[in-house]
Amino acid sequence: MLIIAYILSLIGLTYFAATIKKPFQLLHGKKSKLSDKRKWILHGFGYLHIAFALYPCVHQWGPQVGIAIWVGIIHVAGFSLVPILTYRPNWFCYLWKLCLAGQQVTAATKT
């Protein structure tokens, strides 16, 4: 359950990172611009994945301990994503391929 929560948190934070200028250009090319509509869709998917990561924690450890572990897992996922963005940006592209739903929706809403 801990690994499921970690993966969901990592994917959720990947959606958030994809809205930052440099990672967005890494994924979509130097000339691409991020519209407000696409940004909010990506943020929505990020919030959704992070919220879904709460369920395995609460299911495994109960609400009091589960929420504390969930917050810790979000921090660990964030600390994992920062070095990937800094030192291995091509790994971020591979991680983005895991985020298939976001790719499909943002491709459909290109403006």
What does this structure look like?
The protein is mainly alpha-helical. The protein has one domain. Helix content is 86%, strand content 0%. It has 5 helices and no strands. It has helices spanning 2-17, 21-28, 36-87, 89-98, 100-108. The longest helix has 52 residues, at 36-87. The radius of gyration is 15 Å and the shape is globular. Keywords: Membrane, Transmembrane, Transmembrane helix.
List keywords for this structure.
transmembrane helix; 0% strand; 111 residues; transmembrane; mainly alpha; 86% helix; globular; DUF3325 domain-containing protein
Map the helices and strands.
Layout: H1 2-17, H2 21-28, H3 36-87, H4 89-98, H5 100-108
Helix pairs in contact: 1-3, 3-4, 3-5
Structural category is mainly alpha
Number of domains: 1
| N→C terminal distance | 39 Å
The assembly state of the depicted protein chains is single chain
Mass-distribution shape: globular
Mean pLDDT metric: 87
Instruction: Please compute the radius of gyration using only Cα atoms.
Output: 15 Å
Helix content: over 70%
Content of β-strand: under 5%
Number of helices: 5
**Helices and strands, in N-to-C order?**
HHHHH
How many runs of DSSP E, i.e. beta strands? 0
Which regions have little confidence, pLDDT < 50, spanning 5+ residues?
A: none
Characterize the biggest β-sheet: none
Summarize the structure.
The chain crosses the membrane at residues 6-28, 40-61, 67-87. The protein is mostly helical.
